[in-house]
Amino acid sequence: MYTNEIAMKEFFDNFDIEEFIPKYRGVVSEIYSKQLEDLANNFWVVPPSFSLFGAQILSPKKYSPDELATKFLNIYSKDNYKIFDIIIPHTDREYHDILNQVLACLRQGYFGICIPTLTSIFEGVIAGKLDIHEIKYQHPLVKKIDTDYYTGVELFTALSINEFIKVFFKPHNFKEEKPRNLNRHWIQHGRIDFDYTAKDVIQLLNAVCSASSLVEWRSRLANGM
C-alpha cells in the first residue's frame, strides 16, 4: 500500500464526525460571519438553492454587500420569479399550498397581502418547527446547529437565518420613523402602511423558504434519507 493510501486510511480510521462537525461549524462561522451579517442587514438569507451559487459568492473579494444583494434580487426576479417554483417543493410539505398562494400574489402584484402572511409563517416555522420558543429569539439557532449537525449548505442557511432574525425581530419603537427593513413587531402589531414592494416579498419569501428547507432537511435526516 502506498504511503498516501496508508495516511488516508489512518485518517478515516480515526475520524470522529461528532468531533469534526462542531469544529467545522466554528470555522465556517468565523470565516463567513461578516458576510452573513451584511446579507442580513440587506434583508437577505443564504437561500436553500445556495449550492447553485457556490460558497465563493460570499467572498468579499468577489462582491461587495450591496453588489451581492443586487445579485440575489436579480436571480430571484428572473423569469417571473421562476426560482421559487424550484425552491418551494423543497420546503416543509405543510407550507407548500400557502407559499404557492403567496407566489401567485407576488406574480399578480398583490404585495400587501403577502408580507403579514409570510411574517406569521416565518415565526411559525422557527417557533414550532425548529423548536425555538424564546420570546426575544436571541441567537435562536445555536443549539439546533450543534445538536442537529447542520453541514454544507444547511449550515450556511442556518447561520444566515440566525443573523436575519436579529434584524427582523429587532425592537423598534413605534414612535420612531419606519424601520429601514421589514420589522416583525411593526408588521404583527399593525404599524404598517402597506406600501410594500416586490423586493420586500421576494426577500421575506426567501427567508421563509430557507427556514422551512431546514425543517425538510431535518425530516430527511431523521428518516435516514
Q: Helices and strands, in N-to-C order?
A: HHHHHHHHHH
* Gross morphology: globular
- Gyration radius over CA: 19 Å
Total number of strands = 0
Q: Indicate the low-confidence ranges by residue numbers.
A: none
Largest sheet: none
Strand content: under 5%
**Helix coverage percent:** 55-70%
Structural class: mainly alpha
- Could you tell me how far the N terminus lies from the C terminus, measured between alpha carbons in angstroms? 34 Å
Task: Please provide a brief summary of the model.
The protein is mostly helical. The chain has helices at residues 3-13, 17-41, 65-81, 83-87, 96-108, 111-129, 142-148, 152-168, 184-188, 198-222. The model has no long low-confidence stretch (mean pLDDT 81).
If you had to describe this structure to a student in words, what would you say it looks like?
64% of the residues lie in helices and 0% in strands. It has ten helices and no strands. The protein is globular and about 65 Å long. The longest helix has 25 residues. By secondary structure, it is mainly alpha-helical.
Strand and helix layout:
Blueprint: H1 3-13, H2 17-41, H3 65-81, H4 83-87, H5 96-108, H6 111-129, H7 142-148, H8 152-168, H9 184-188, H10 198-222
Descriptive tags:
mainly alpha; globular; 225 residues
